[in-house]
Amino acid sequence: MTKNLIDVQDLRIAFAGKEVVHGIDFHIAPGENLALVGESGSGKTITALSLLRLVQNAAVSGSAVFDSHEGPVDLLALEETRLRGIRGQEISMIFQEPMTALNPLFSVGDQIGEVLQLHKGLTRTEAWEEAIKLLADTGISEPERRALSFPHQLSGGQRQRAVIAMALACQPRLLLADEPTTALDVTVRGQILDLLASLQQKNGMAVLMITHDLNLVRRFADRVAVMENGYIVEQGRVGEVFANPQHPYTRRLIDSTPARDLQESQPNAALAGVMNAQNLRVSYPVAVGGIKGWFKKGEFVAVKGASFDIPAGQTLGVIGESGSGKSSLALAALGLHPHQGELQVVGKAWGTNAANDKALRRAVQVVFQDPFSSLSPRMTIEAIVGEGLLVHHPELNAAQRQEKVLAALADVGMLESPDVVAGPPQDASHPLGGQRNTRGDGVRGQYFPGLLQRYPHEFSGGQRQRLAIARALMVDPQLLVLDEPTSALDVTIQKQVLALLQRLQRERGLSYLLITHDVDVIRAMAHQVMVMKDGEVLESGTLSDIVDFPQHPYTRTLVAAHSPAPVA
Predict the structure, then answer these.
(1) CA gap 252, 257 in Å, rounded
(2) pLDDT band at 419 (very low <50, low <70, confident <90, very high)
(3) Taking CA atoms, which of 39, 52, 102, 319 is between 20 and 30 Å from 344?
(4) Second CATH level (architecture) for the domain 1-90+172-255
(5) Which residues contact 190 (CB under 8 A, 6 or more apart)?
(6) The whole model's pTM is what?
(7) Which distant-in-sequence residues (6+ apart) come within 8 Å of 498 by Cβ?
(8) What's the CA angle centered on 233, arms 229 and 238, to 5 degrees?
(9) Residue spans per domain, the chain
(10) In this predicted structure, what is the pLDDT of residue 437?
């Protein structure tokens, strides 16, 4: 019988006397991959953090026996000085949010090198060279230059790769990986998984993977443990659990792939598009080295001649990796960054005059990727959702604005009291839009007493994204720019939000410019698809053309990365 690398028994975690993890048991053998799966709030991250005693003000009990180099030790009872020698050297952790995991005052090369100097005794020069090699191994281009960069100078994906490089620096025996590939592109995900696999073969490293990506679980994990509300409700071999889930919660997670429920309208050349672009070009000024930089600036071209058309009531899905130009395209579409070429919204161009731009900002609204950072923490829900009315409908008084805010919130399934029921407007003359209880997104309205006076931090991620959608709908736009609208959400909540967006599109005739890296979201939402890489449009066409019959090798790689993987 193989000796376990770590054996966790009756792990309980409580805050101020309230238990949040309830006596869970699991083990990991040397070289084994265990995936801990569950939604936000299930206790996954707090479980991993508690193994290294990184949770402040928590009462932790039970045992976590780790087979260290010095013999078996109980991590939960170990003195801090000995535990410090295990952290980073024998057990490392990849944190989910790389911006908070990295020190903003030091370059990423210095931060990786510090780990090597502390645990391996390397000189500063040796540590710097090894840091560059680690960055290269994680797929960062120009690692010598990126090692000199500070965290804020890197993209989200690059920061996550730097955190991974730091965690793998000492070749740990156990890696605690909290959503390690969430911010990474699909091709880089493959590189990271290959890197982890090679390290496992070399030194028998085991991985506790915390994730909500079921495709990642299928491809990477040997066993899976499903967590709900602080309990492990089911665990076993990946193939067995996925093929025959026993717990209702497990079945719900596995059945969380977004469903397609769209109005499959046929293109009509006689109808003008809500947004049209021809040879759209977006660039940024960059410094030029040497004497030439005294006299002129260079430029970085983020979008190189994109052409597209978004008809009324349809969705254009733009898919590609970080740095492909998707976000720059969205900024141009929103009139937030200058561009060259032709770009028209409802037949008008940005930048003509202030009155024209104000009208276009009413026609085009945006839903951002992170629902928490996109909502002001200092404003109430009534102020956040109704802010657009102050700009575009100044004639409304406070009572009228509140009525419209309540109607918009009810339409996205958020109700202040049972007196208002969720659903689309039936009677425009009704003060609340004639709300009804027939919902097309499979989610009943949720009641929140005192909803209008609450603040964003009082809501879950999915609820905050519904608030962001309600805010965007307040001024009756014709086009929504959706910038990764579900990437920060759990899979079951993602399915609900996409169903909500589909229902709103059917009922309101909305058009969407959908920016994403997730092919599953494209399959559920898009009528037309445009694939971008390094600022260029590699191919575009109908959903079937791109997803079912991709022509470009890059597109085939993207689609293959999101295809269901066989499980053992």
Answers:
(1) 10
(2) low
(3) 319
(4) 3-Layer(aba) Sandwich (3.40)
(5) 561
(6) 0.75
(7) 258, 486, 521, 524, 525
(8) 125
(9) 1-90+172-255, 101-171
(10) 40
